[in-house]
Design brief:
Blueprint: H1 3-48, H2 57-76, H3 78-84, H4 87-102, H5 110-129, H6 134-154, H7 159-231, H8 236-248
Helix pairs in contact: 1-2, 1-3, 1-7, 2-3, 2-4, 4-5, 4-6, 5-6, 5-7, 6-7
């Protein structure tokens, strides 16, 4: 394995650890937010006395319970955590589809409801990208596209709008994966610069440590040559070693 490939692999392992940490944080935030949402949902349902809201009340509790299980599951093992980052694709998005679809019989603008859900899907996709690998990002984007197209079809939205929604979600996934890949490249370059800087500092230190004793040796040869030169002409067996030492220094 080349040095460049080894650096990339090392950084990918570090990013995997970071993704798992982000997944745990994301699941925790989802659980807290859902518990708060369920509580607020119950208070408003009781205060307004609106029986229609009770239809989705069980689903909300189930959604919050799953989010809590994901928090626990993501801490059990790293392998399980790698798969639980797909929760937005297989839990959140179907739930949003179900809730938004339930509003169609009473809402005056089903297309507006479908358009609002696409914003939620894009938000979930962006959040999922913090803790997902490349293939997981694209799988989440595919799930979002399927649910959004189904919502728009049932809302009577044109085929062109459905295609536009898929294109927007696909471009979002492309930008997220590009940002992830670019981040790896920047980390590789940064690591290489840090290694070169450390090597430069080491070289400067070694040069300094070598320069002082070599200067002392050069001065000693110079003094020795002058003293021998005063005493008598230097014999070849003395001149040759001195010349060799000076040349090598």
């Amino acid at each position: 394995m080349t040095t460049h490939a080894a650096e990339r692999e090392s950084i990918r392992r570090a990013l995997r650890v970071e993704r798992l940490l982000n997944a745990r944080r994301t699941h925790l935030v989802r659980a807290v937010a859902l518990v708060f949402f369920v509580g607020l949902f119950a208070v408003l349902a009781i205060a307004r006395g609106d029986a229609a809201w009770n239809t989705d009340f069980t689903a909300l509790f189930a959604w919050a319970a799953l989010a809590a299980l994901f928090v626990v599951g993501s801490r059990v093992s790293d392998t399980l955590g790698d798969w639980l980052v797909l929760a937005p694709a297989f839990v959140d998005m179907p739930f949003i589809y179900d809730v938004q679809r339930a509003q169609y019989p009473t809402t005056p603008s089903p297309s507006g409801v479908a358009g609002f859900s696409m914003g939620l899907f894009a938000l979930l996709l962006a959040i999922a990208a913090l803790s997902s690998a490349r293939w997981q990002i694209w799988l989440t984007a595919a799930s979002a596209s399927v649910w959004e197209v189904l919502l728009q079809r049932e809302a009577g939205v044109s085929v062109g709008a459905q295609v536009s929604a898929v294109v927007v979600l696909g471009l979002t996934a492309f930008m997220l994966t590009y940002a992830s890949d670019r981040r790896v490249e920047l980390l590789v370059q940064t690591g290489r610069r840090e290694k070169l800087a450390a090597l430069g500092q080491l070289s400067a230190g070694v040069g300094h440590d070598l320069r002082n004793p070599l200067a002392a040796v050069a001065n000693a040869i110079f003094v020795l040559r002058r003293r021998l030169g005063k005493a008598s002409a230097l014999a070849p067996e003395i001149e040759q070693p001195l010349a060799l030492a000076e040349r090598e220094l």
